[in-house]
Design goal:
Elements: E1 2-6, E2 12-16, H1 17-33, E3 41-45, H2 50-61, E4 65-68, H3 75-85, E5 89-93, H4 97-104, E6 111-115, E7 127-128, H5 129-134, E8 150-155, E9 165-169, H6 170-181, E10 193-196, H7 208-215, E11 218-221, H8 228-238, E12 242-244, H9 247-259, E13 270-274, H10 281-289, E14 292-296, E15 308-309, H11 321-328, E16 333-334, E17 339-344, E18 347-348, E19 357-362, E20 386-394, E21 400-405, E22 410-412, E23 415-417, H12 419-426, E24 432-442, E25 446-455, H13 463-471, E26 482-485, H14 499-505
Parallel strand pairs: 1-11, 3-4, 3-5, 4-8, 5-6, 6-7, 10-11, 10-12, 13-14, 25-26
Antiparallel strand pairs: 1-2, 8-9, 15-16, 17-18, 17-19, 19-20, 20-21, 22-23, 24-25
Helix pairs in contact: 1-2, 3-4, 6-7, 8-9
Bound molecules: adenosine-5'-diphosphate.
Length: about 500
């Protein structure tokens, strides 16, 4: 089994699982010799590559807590997070030293190890990660670890409010790995090759390092190259069978495939577990035509992250394709051992696929509190369900469909409008590359929808055309009252549409 990764100069590095094991174990020994105590936090500031994988395995095996820092956050947020977690050590890519410098003054780190990711030795004043590993003797006994001890922590990416820390235990990670590996979920096996497109600092790297290590799946990592061309290159050259990323990644891949017909010959059908935001039905359909089978799932940093798996149930196999695609665009049913419910006040709402309510979740890998944040405990019900902040419907087959994040729902004249439904419909228009819809203050209706649209290269569409296109599917009062054409939609640190920025940008919109 191999680990393959891209270096900054785009060259490809590779080693075996045996090398991964030896190096992760050397890291565990070196950290223990450096005085790491059980529960100490070891932070990482790294792209997706082999050394990051080593930390995923080596730090928890030493009894430490792996804390992956989101390298796209603002310096003040990073300082807040490092201080809040009280990180003791940091392992950082040489190419990310400028990022570290931006907040180093504001944090206390005992030791910093620099990974020569670009091949250069650590600059003066820093410790070298390779030299640190080289100090290991091979004489190392794993510490006794209780299954409930902390193994890793991750902060929410802060799409809504200040990042909050979530701690994963050895137990929760092991159970999550089993659930992730099952066939209808990520479906990882020994014969697969998995590409982790999602950044390894996002939501516990979607659990992939642990699941892949558990079942022995070859792992492919993109380094800092997360663009569509690099993704397709690695899929082709490494024979990737499973690739995991957020919808915006797949929108980019689709664009590349469609702009260059015949250029990319995928070696096999690629299974693409996809979540983080809702993939439009049109994306699922179009990717199928290119041999990429999107598997829709829903999860959160707080749920490790896997909580549902979408797709077709056995009794739906003969349904018309249009019906099947509708089902595949839903977020799916609960993963094994995860419980879901949709509530309004004290009661569960009807499972009629229409009535929306607050989505709540609980299970063995669902957080029961945020790290050192008792003021946030109201996010959990007294009987231990996590209030996700997502609004959903559910049905008799057990599928949930997310209507929106409660903060993104558009409240117009006492009625709710789903921004997700509108934007996903818009992204089904042939001229539209991306679309985000936000609620903008309105003197009469409280809020009205405004659509921000990015057109495909060389394509044209007017506001009237797009409105007419949507009118076939939505009631008149649900249609956006304004369409704004932009060259890009701002993104969060993990590639979701940054709707809070759009809301700020259009807060003063003058309605006609
Ligand atoms: P942040 O909350 O900072 O964005 P997360 O990455 O943990 O950090 O985001 C979890 C949220 O992402 C969920 O609460 C939900 O709103 C959204 N999400 C995740 N998966 C999906 C999905 N398949 N469809 C729609 N929204 C999703």
């Amino acid at each position: 089994m191999e680990v393959v990764w891209r270096r900054p100069d785009r060259s490809v590095g590779r080693y075996t699982f045996g090398d991964l094991y030896r190096r992760a174990r050397a890291l565990a020994e070196a950290l223990t010799r450096a005085g790491l105590k059980k529960g100490d936090r070891v932070a990482t500031l790294m792209w997706n590559h082999s050394a990051h994988l080593e930390t995923y395995l080596g730090v928890p095996c030493a009894g430490g807590v792996l804390h992956t820092l989101n390298l796209r956050l603002h310096a003040s947020e990073l300082a807040f997070i490092v201080n809040h977690a009280a990180d003791r050590y940091l392992i950082v890519d040489d190419v990310l030293l400028p990022c570290l410098e931006s907040f180093r003054r504001d944090v206390k780190l005992e030791r910093v190890f620099v990974v020569p990711y670009s091949g250069n030795p650590a600059p003066a004043g820093f410790e070298d990660y390779e030299a640190f590993l080289g100090g290991a003797t091979g004489q190392f006994a794993y510490p006794a670890i209780d299954e409930n001890d902390a193994a890793a922590m991750c902060f929410t990416s802060g799409t809504t409010g200040r990042p909050k820390g979530v701690v994963y235990s050895h137990r929760s990670i092991v159970l999550h790995s089993f659930a992730e590996a099952v066939k209808d979920s990520f479906g990882l096996g020994h014969h697969d090759v998995v590409l982790a497109v999602a950044p390894m600092f996002h939501a516990n790297a979607w659990g992939l390092p642990f699941t892949a290590a558990m079942v022995g799946t070859k792992i492919v990592l993109l380094g800092a190259h997360m663009d569509a061309e690099s993704i397709l290159q690695m899929i082709v050259s490494e024979g990737v069978t499973i690739a995991c990323g957020v919808p915006t990644i797949w929108l980019g891949v689709l664009d590349e495939l469609e702009r260059n017909p015949g250029k990319w010959k995928l070696p096999n059908i690629v299974r693409a577990p996809c979540g983080g935001s809702a993939p439009p039905e049109s994306l699922i359909r179009a990717l199928d035509r290119h041999g990429i089978h999107l598997v829709h799932l829903w999860g959160m940093t707080e749920t490790s992250p896997l909580a549902t798996t979408g797709g077709i149930r056995a009794h739906m196999r003969e349904w018309p394709m249009d019906e099947q695609y509708k089902v595949r665009a839903r977020q799916g049913w609960a993963s094994p051992f995860v419980e879901l419910r949709v509530t309004r006040g004290e009661h569960e709402v009807l499972r009629d696929a229409t009535t929306a309510g607050d989505l709540e979740v609980r299970g063995p890998w669902v957080a029961s509190g945020y790290y050192n944040a008792p003021e946030e405990q109201s996010r959990w019900t007294p009987d231990g369900w996590f209030r996700t902040g997502d609004v959903a419907t559910w049905d008799d087959d057990g599928y949930i469909k997310l209507v929106d994040r409660s903060k993104d729902l558009i409240k117009s004249g006492g009625e709710w409008i789903s921004s997700v439904d509108l934007e996903n419909a818009l992204m089904g228009h042939p001229a539209v590359k991306e679309a985000a819809v936000v609620g903008v203050p309105h003197p009469k209706w409280a809020e009205r929808p405004l659509a921000v649209v990015v057109l495909k290269d060389g394509a044209a569409a007017t506001a009237e055309e797009l409105r007419a296109f949507l009118a076939a599917r939505f009631a008149k009062w649900q249609l956006p009252d304004a369409f704004v054409f932009e060259s890009a939609i701002p993104r969060t640190s993990v590639g979701k549409f940054l709707k809070s920025r759009l809301r700020d940008q259009f807060a003063g919109w003058k309605w006609e």
